[in-house]
Amino acid sequence: MKIAVRMDDITPDMDWKAFYRVKEILDRAGIKPLLGIVPDNRDPNLHKCDNRQDFWEVMRSLQAEGWCMALHGMHHNYTSEKGGLFPLNNLSEYVGLPYAAQCEMIRRGKDILERNGIHTTLFMAPAHSYDRNTLKALVMNGFTGVTDGFGDMPYQYKNLTFYPISFRMEKTLQKKNGYSTMVLHANTMTEKDFEVLENRLSDRKLYTNCEFISYQDYLQVPARRQTWVNRSLEWSMATTKRLLVKLKGILKK
Ligand SMILES: [Zn+2]
Known about the structure:
Layout: E1 2-10, H1 16-29, E2 34-37, H2 55-65, E3 68-71, H3 99-115, E4 122-123, H4 132-140, E5 145-146, E6 155-157, E7 160-162, H5 169-172, E8 179-184, H6 191-202, E9 211-212, H7 215-218, E10 224-225, H8 228-252
Parallel strand pairs: 1-2, 1-8, 1-9, 2-3, 4-5, 5-7, 6-10
Antiparallel strand pairs: 6-7
């Protein structure tokens, strides 16, 4: 299996120490990930330090190095308790809002990135939640791809290419064929998580079937057409995963 990496929740006030720790591990492995940038962060959960003044400069230089960029919402504030078409979480910044409102949020978000020299046609939905209007608004604003969904190949749906993420990483790492994405949230990574990441990228004996690739290479993989059956399967998997995570939380209490 070929696995690309995405890093969520990239903001001027993120945990920079953790960010650079991940970067160091990825650099050592020669992997360039996809960064999900929040254009105007207002989510207090993502606030880990004072705003770094050279944020956009850092982003531009990573972009120049070949790192990929995605628009990760507008404010990263959840305005509804709906999961939409990919209900991994019952939270969303977009789901349920009228088309015109979503179109405007996406346009403004993209505009902030562009004014700061960040060019992208990829979208990363906060909490993985989007609905039909989000997809329509993305196409309207010139977006071509979404980092989400389940499956082992990029697929086309509603005039967008979806680049699937992993359902269960340890299982994905053992699979022989296909493509997937490992999702990283540096802000909340523990010592153990850094150790696991390091092992996944370097222990070629344990993970003989998988190869990590740069996100640019994932974008080159031809997409198949999404079938109605796969779309339903994906919805059921997202719902199951959400319920399992909830159950785990209840059992932990
Ligand atoms: Zn996020």
